[in-house]
Amino acid sequence: MLIKNFIDQNTCNHFVQILAKSKHLDYEKDNQITNKTTKGYYKALQKFHISQTERVSEIFKKELIPTNDYSRIYTKGSTLVEHTDDGKCEYSLTVNLLNTPEYERWPFYTETNNIIQKYIMGPGDAVFYYGIAQKHWREELLYDKCYQMFLHYVDKNGSNAHLGIANYKDFL
Question: Distance (Å, rounded) from C-alpha 102 to C-alpha 146?
């Protein structure tokens, strides 16, 4: 499901600045990065991730627990290989923060029961999907950069609940 303007432009800009100041992961530690100039960030936006738990729970119609957030600055030539996620990514969303140049858009794809859905996101738009059940991917990035944030959750009453941040409410 695509939700336009999930976050506002000022918040997107703020998150881009946070990522610019954050320490990124080594290329070898992120097996989904397809080129050495793409950067990954783990838990750089954790406060926002946790603050969205109730809102995301309402959208998925499940009581959710946050697990981890992840962000990437993809660079030209990147692809996201078709995959499903592990148990800590039961309920996921990917949020577009910035495209450079700004007018460009990089499609995000999901597949369920052999039906492929293509999503076009501008800054602030989010795609909600079931990370462990839906294949998802991106084809080659043909423009300079795409900044993305990923928020992951598990069902509080599900078999992966133990993977959630047990004391996440303390962060609020």
Answer: 9
156 within 8 A of 64, measured Cβ to Cβ = yes
DSSP state at residue 6? S
- Residue 113 CA to residue 11 CA, distance in Å, equals 35
> Phi and psi dihedrals of 44, rounded to 5?
-75, -25
Residues in the chain: 172
Residue 134: which of 149, 124, 119 has the closest Cα? 119
141 near 37, Cβ under 8 Å? no
HSE-up of residue 16 (Cα within 13 Å, Cβ side): 18
Helix segments in the chain, DSSP class H: 9-21, 46-51, 53-60, 168-171
Within 8 A by CB and 6+ apart from 30, the residues are 40
The model's pTM:
0.91
CA distance to 5, 18, 21, 102, per residue, from 2 (Å): 10, 25, 29, 19
136-146 confidence digits (pLDDT tens): 999 999 999 99
The reported pLDDT for the residue numbered 28 is 56
DSSP letter at 165? -
